[in-house]
Amino acid sequence: MADAAGRLTKLAEEVLGAPLPVRIRAWDRSESGPPGAPTLVIRHRRALRRMMFRPGELGLARAWVAGDLDIDGDLYEALDRLAGLIWERDDAPRPQRAAVVRALARPEIRAAARELLTLAGAPVPPAPPAEEVRRRRGPLHTLRRDKEAISHHYDVGNDFYALVLGPSMVYSCAYWESPSATLEDAQRDKLDLICRKLGLQKDRRLLDVGCGWGSMVLHAAREYGVRAVGITLSEEQATFARKRIAEAGLADRVEIRVQDYREIHDEPFDAISSIGMAEHVGRTQYGEYAAALYRLLQPGGRLLNHQIARRPVADEEAYHVDEFIDRYVFPDGELAPVGQTVGQLEEAGFEVRDVEAIREHYALTLRSWVANLERHWDEAARLTSTGRARVWRLYMAASALSFERNRIGVNQVLAVRTPESGESGLPLRGRDWTG
Question: Where does the sequence pass through the membrane (predicted)?
């Protein structure tokens, strides 16, 4: 059938009741849409079948990961233009959503849908890409299921992550002095900020929950002389971190364990850092997480909880995790509003002393990671798979826009296990962390 792009554009605009914000280039080389706009490239009609059998975000994600769908032009601009149709569709005013539903019921739209079936070809649903996690069964956040989820995300190769993250090997939001700073400097400044907030001193005992490739414990031991324990559920991360620590001559001060926070029983610690780990904990488990960290701290000890936050929704019970993120990126991961996080830390017994929002910093960090991935694309695809590299590029670019558009944020929450005397150990003036 000729002019597939024109037919698809017409169908989309009839459903939306507005011009399509991107161009379309179809497998028959036809093009349609606003001149000069980023182009949505439909390389194979199989992409349509993926979207028809799983309408919405998951169908689009499968087509993208499989390479059936691509973007020609600026990826960020394309995602920004498409956000209202895909990721932010649930935020549209109710009358706008109702108008789309009414449009889908019109006879001419049903006729166009039948034409779309013809365009899509054989009515057989394509198999999901190999990089997708199939739907899991059983209770959330058991020790085994959490370990499997962490392995999916982090055990994709240390060499791959080295390309994306750079020499710092820090996989969390950096702390930028200015947009022109280097990623390495921004990550070093983040680690140092956390050390200062925790009031680290020589021979103090630090626990880093979700230690990744060991960057936090390495910095804290080298620069502040602490004795540190880092825990991770990733075997690959642990191997890499131990090698770094040995090469730095700090094996007598830093221990790396493959261990869940629920399995630690050699308290007390003087300080605990949890950087980009609590997103994996989940709503049902967060109270236990907060209580465990409180138990592991000695009175007067400080916790620095660095965590991504979503915006509150009217019906918290109706909140659902994005399908693309759940199936391809962070299985079983959940985001909570910062107020909810603070409340649960307080319920566990902590005194929350400071909350610092650094949302814009994460957008800068993600754009740097995307640039690293694009710069080393061929090698990154060779180290994992082309599909996996496409997952990371899409999720990091889309996440950067989500931070920039204030759809999600990230916060550093400083809390203290204040002793019965009421002496928190913090200086009188806020954010003078060491007095």
Answer: none
